[in-house]
Design a protein that fits this description.
With 409 residues, this protein is an alpha+beta fold. The protein has three domains: 165 residues, no CATH class; 93 residues, no CATH class; 99 residues, no CATH class. It is built from seven helices and 25 strands. The strands form six sheets. A seven-stranded mixed sheet has the order 8-7-12-15-16-5-17. A six-stranded antiparallel sheet has the order 11-10-9-6-13-14, with no helix packed on it. A four-stranded antiparallel sheet has the order 1-22-23-24. α2 packs across α4, α3 crosses α4 and α4 crosses α5.
Length: 409
Amino acid sequence: MRARATLTTVALLTATAWAGGGSAAAVPTDDVYEVPASGTLVVDGRGYGHGHGMSQHGAQGAALQGLGYREIVGFYYPGTELGSMKGKVRVLITGDTTDDVVVSPARNLRVRDLGSRSTHALPARPAIKRWRLHVVNGRTVVQRLTDRWRPFRPGGKKFLAGDGEFLANRPLTLWTPSGTKRYRGILRAASPNPGSPARDTVNIVPMNGYIKGVIPAEMPASWHPEAVKSQAIAARTYATWSRNQNMNRYYQICDTTACQVYGGLDSEDPRSNQSVASTGREILRYDGAPAFTQFSASSGGWTSASSGGAPYLPAQEDPYDGWHGNAVHTWTKEVKAGVIEKRYPKVGRLVRIRVTKRDGNGEWQGRVDEMVLEGTKGDVRITGDSFRWTAGLRSRWFTIEQAPQARRR
């Protein structure tokens, strides 16, 4: 499993003044790239992801050079201080797209009614194959599967007074449309809004139990232990920050790249679990509060400044990212002009690309902030990030090779 580009700007990303792709101090440029007769652009680039904060490949490179995890996070988040956290986190399980929460029987399985605050033991019988929290007319009922789904009335009540959740003394097996997954902690059928007939599955789990399910999905557990410990610090800090931003929301973080990838117990690895244990409850703080510890797969040799001006997310040269195992430190990709024309039909036939602003850091004057697509029908001004996603590039730090052919006619 490779390191992934994370915390991308998509619908589920927690709103924040510090989340953004642009540079805090862009420099004007006038880089003009003619579209060749072949209609194929050759794009050279650096890095993978937004480049804010820690480079995961950089953490590995630094560890291989002998840096400890505290030195690594100190480099990538300058000005922060180590602190501690405690408590649980509420994680939205996006793979369960149904309104039901369905679990396998488990020893000491119980259901809790969040309305009455009462907890009820569920019987363990060979004939019972599964349990579920189901919605009927906007209210939650408990059912058991034998030859069919049959009602179960905890405390003699047909409906729960509020939302319900399953808990046991061991991990729970959740049934989803794509299969089963095991999770530590509690599985809740949560109402997105009061009175809503819909339910979302939310995993309430101790923070370190959550981090154990994050790290192998974000960084190879086989990497140097000090790099994996750095990932534990960054992931735990980000989760604590997200939790603090959403104390009253029914979930506080999600399980995709919009937040951090989280796969539950089935994603855990003993090696990364040891890194979680050895870093205890450590997080990074700035001015006493949990830091917004963004990270991405590879910086390409320079990190990117936070557009909101977070002082611990600066643009700085990264001497560790280019270790021999980083295949995305530099890269090349061919892009068909037709792909861009389809996404921006107002251009017509794409004639040339003009890059007008970059962030000023590193080769080619750094990451692209703004650019203009010039075509036979008109010009369209877009951001470097927009071009990145349209063209399927690894980052917005790129240049386009000058082709010797004449432009298309």
